[in-house]
Specification:
- With about 750 residues, the chain is an alpha/beta fold.
- Strands 5-4-3-2-1-11 form a six-stranded parallel sheet. A six-stranded mixed sheet has the order 12-17-16-15-13-14, sandwiched between helices.
- A hairpin with a 4-residue loop joins strand 24 (about 725) and strand 25.
- Helix 1 crosses helix 14 (about 340-355), helix 11 packs across helix 12 and helix 16 (about 375-390) crosses helix 22 (about 575-580).
- The longest helix is centred in the N-terminal third of the chain and has 19 residues, at about 55-75.
- The radius of gyration is 27 Å and the shape is globular.
Length: about 750
Amino acid sequence: MTDRLYRDSTRPIRDRVEDLLGRLTLEEKAGQLTQYFYMGVAMNLPADFDFTTVPEEQRAFLQQPRMVEAAIKSGTAGAVLFAKDPATINHLQRIAVEESPHEIPLLVGYDIVHGLRTIFPVPIALAASWSLGTAEAVQAAAAREARAVGINWTFAPMIDIARDARWGRMVEGAGEDPVLGAALAAAQVRGFQGDLSRTCVISGPKHFLGYGASRGGRDYDDAEISDSELWNVHLPPFRAAVEAGALSIMSAYMDLNGIPASGNSWLLTELLRDELGFDGFVVSDANAVRSMETQHFAKDLTDAATRAVEAGLDMEMVMFDPAFDTLPDAVNADLVPLPVIDRAVRRVLTAKFRLGLFENPYVDAAAAVAELNSPARRDLAQEAAEASFVLLKNENSALPLHTDSLSAVAVIGQLAASQRDTLGPWVFDHDTAETVTILEGIRARAGDQLRVDHAPGAAITERLYPSPFDRMDATVETTPEGYDDDIEIDRAVALAAAADVAIVVIGQRQNQSGEKASVPTLDLPGRQLEQLQRIVATGTPVVAVVMSGRPLDLQWADQHVPAILQAWYPGTRGGDAVAATLFGDVSPAGRLPFTWPRHVGQVPMIYAHNRTFAPQDQGERYITEPSTPLYPFGHGLSYAEFTYSNLTLDRKVIEVGEECVVSVDVTNTSDRTADEVVQLYIHQRHGSASRPVRELKDFERLTLDGGATSTVQFKILPDELRYWNAATRAYVQDVTVFDIWIGGCSTADLGTVLSVERGDS
């Protein structure tokens, strides 16, 4: 091995990278910067298969796996994505390690967004848990499953701030708030990457930057973001992810303020690397480099490739015909300097060495089976789901349900019995057979004590434009052809009328959230609202369970249904978790990670708006209805009762650059153990810019026994009192006065005042 220093694991990674880099041709360097989709549908075709026998539009996809394998063998592919079977991944790594010129293993990427085989609650649900420990544990478990099958890199977490509920990808993120978003971003990066051992994967936070602000909530549309909002709202989660050690960042598709994100040197170099200190590698979103020509930014693929790599993009994700294939000719034509290419290759190779891929490129396929079937991981999925549920309403203690006072329960709704929809979007290696639906969970919890009947009821209307992901998923559930809505709604209403309680599961199917799943309305699809109204009219007590990845129009339900539980898409053991919550085995403690509007006409609506003109009329901005949310940010009820008292500051006056400690006593005044989410908010009264009426600055989820009191302390640091000022174009901390509130919601009214004075210096 003396002639190949890069194979010597005892040498520093930097030396190994330089040795290997010096051996690569220009074409091989460009190959290390190329990631191909590997859609292995044609793997088992005979070697002499005649591709001319299939339609031309299908031919390229059937030939694509062989094209990718040829590129790997020639050393012109550095990474693949969408391979998930350990035998397949070992096959590809074997080509790379045993047949390519320099035996360089592959990065194998996948969208492990909320689980691989064990499906955890969707990310917006994890955000609703306000539990950093839960988020980290969930992604560490997902990483173990991924690495076991050979996946070593995930395109997650998605940490785009989402303030428009129409945007489909809200389900993938942490909602509207930069502080909650930043904390969850860091926790998930830590979970995925751990110590970068053989049970960990590279975390790839996405999409840098501002993708969640696409116009009208329409996926892929451009985003226009003010400097203040970009720095103060959209950037903090990425700063936190970088500080947590993320080794990869994914750039966005769209134009940000007129410049495609994947070719924006200010974004990818000045901001990401110089300001945030990122030292990993940047990958484009799918076909985003090629798209720069489509967006009429680049004149051709060569121009797109050179502008992307010079801007700081290190790897192109592509299906066919990479733009980065043009880089060798571009270097030879002096269109891009060779050191720019080498810089990108160094970053990619460094990641491979840090993962230990040169020493351990293969996985044990037999051991992977046991890893994917871990009972402990399924238990974690249930615990995470239970932590995420938000009790939106509970009039007259309608929940929890008590089995000793019930004999018959009606469970209504197609979603109640849908295994696939229980899992949510952005899962690709799930096993629906082991999914516990809400109906199954309730039946299991009820046992022989209760009769539990089900009626699917109102059909959930399908998308006008089918989801591109449905073609990859044979388990997608739809309303059967010939379904008679009138008959089924009548049956559901009759069943509910004969029951002691009706649990009505309402919401959207999983493919009505996620990528390319934006909506123009927040109405319940189909005739679900009509059905709910008719069931309530029977006089049977009703509990609504909402399955969605965004807020929906629940105005009528809020007025007429005694109890409403937001269950999101709760994952593999979601049904057990819902049942445990409905019957009081656990107390719900999830809190909303976004402001819940009354209907679509109010979006975007956020709690952290500026005070602006006539603040006393803030709730009267519309002439026909209140301009207030249905449920505020941070809202969530419990089966327990909590009180807050003794809010104190260790210092009422501090100087610029100093810190203080704020304390509060939280008491569980009920007789049951439950969790509470303690939330700290501030407001700057005056300064060199107007600041939001309230800003979340810290939070803690804690468990309290009945009757117990806990003193919670938060340290307010200088960074939490500063902000990026659009006038000075820098971070500032003003001499000012701050209002400080602590409570269980953004509407907390227990407050105090902190003064910040100028120091002697």
